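Progress against Task 2.4 (sequence-to-structure conversion) is shown through the following example record, which the project officer requested during the mid-term review.
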Amino acid sequence: MDVNEKLTKTQSVIEDTGKSFSDSSPLQKIKQSISKVKDDIKSIDIRIGVVSNTLLQLKLKERSKQIEDGKPIDILDNEYEIET
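Structure tokens generated for the chain above:
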């Protein structure tokens, strides 16, 4: 009878191990998390683009105003220069 109990326990351990290998819910959660991170990155990239564009527009307006006022323009006056 002791051998039968060990056999039953061993079979249940093997069965439980097999179930855990076939359980794909952790993999699905990882895939969903990766997808969410990718969406967040896209959103942040869009925000960075909007801020960069706004900054560039402000710089161009500032430069236009300086030209209209007849003030000399320092081409390398800060780090937000237009890149060519």
